[in-house]
Design a protein that fits this description.
This protein is an alpha/beta fold and 246 residues long. It contains nine helices and seven strands; from the N terminus they run ααβαααβααββαββαβ. The strands form two sheets. Strands 1-7-6-2-3 form a five-stranded parallel β-sheet, sandwiched between helices. The radius of gyration is 19 Å and the shape is globular. The structure holds zinc ion (ZN) (2 copies).
Length: 246
């Protein structure tokens, strides 16, 4: 006698075959298109980032820019990494994709994110040949979520970068910090100061280029805390890449 759970799974599989996928932004049906989880209309709302942009966080500058290289937020960051890039702005349908991945266990959106990464101007070239280092989750958090979205994204960036681009995980998160989203910049930085450490097995090669990978760039505090650990260990050739900029 099949269990209720098994029956549910059969029903879900059958449902996927009968009904086309639903748009994660507007809940409308997704017809044929280059993305499978955003409808054509919502797919056009994804805002790719392209130059000119802040050299630290990748946020685009709008309008005329004369010699400015760092946005007003990053001016206070004192980054331990060299520079940063991002793929899309964290608004509208781009935000919905990230939220589906991060908070709703919707791993199927990764196939659309892979398309968007490949379509971001210059991004594949930017990560090519680098060692990609995902920002680690605390083990408790990862058990709860069952995956680290930054590791999954790092794998997509590595695929986009092609031969020589690879994912390594030399960092671990040793402090289970509370959710950072409601905290101000100063409190975030304080909480994160000693939140990351190098794994015992880590082997940092100063000759390699390292690129830290995270899902979103918000204040940059998390990426900066990771960057400090890598730098101290000799990873001085160090940049950051995020999928979304919030
Ligand atoms: Zn839609
Ligand atoms: Zn910036």
């Amino acid at each position: 006698m099949p269990t209720l759970v098994a029956l549910n799974q059969v029903w879900q599989t059958a449902g996927d075959l009968v009904f086309p996928p639903v748009c994660v932004h507007c809940a409308g049906l997704v017809e044929d298109g280059r993305l499978r989880h955003l409808c054509r209309q919502c797919a056009t709302l994804v805002t790719f980032v392209h130059p000119p942009c802040c050299h630290v966080c990748g946020h685009p500058f709008f309008g005329d820019v004369h010699g400015e290289r760092c946005c007003s937020h990053c001016a206070q960051l004192d980054p331990s990494f060299r520079e940063g890039r991002t793929c899309v702005l964290l608004k509208g349908s781009g935000r919905s994709l990230v939220h589906a991945l991060k908070y709703h266990r919707a791993l199927h959106v990764l196939e659309d994110i892979a398309v968007l990464i490949r379509e971001t101007p210059g991004l594949a070239d930017y990560v090519r040949g680098a060692v990609l280092v995902p920002v680690p989750l605390h083990p408790r958090k990862e058990r709860e979520r069952q995956y680290n979205q930054s590791r999954l994204l790092a794998q997509l960036f590595a695929a986009a970068g092609g031969p020589g681009t690879r994912v390594e995980e030399p960092l671990r998160r040793i402090v289970d910090t509370p959710t950072q989203t409601t905290l101000d910049r100063r409190t975030r930085q304080g909480n994160l100061k000693n939140a990351f450490a190098l794994r015992k097995s880590a082997d940092i090669n100063p000759a390699e280029r390292y690129v830290l990978i995270d899902d979103v760039f918000t204040t940059g505090s998390t990426l900066n805390a990771c960057a400090r650990v890598l730098r101290r260990a000799g990873g001085v050739n160090l940049d950051v890449v995020t999928f979304g900029h919030g």
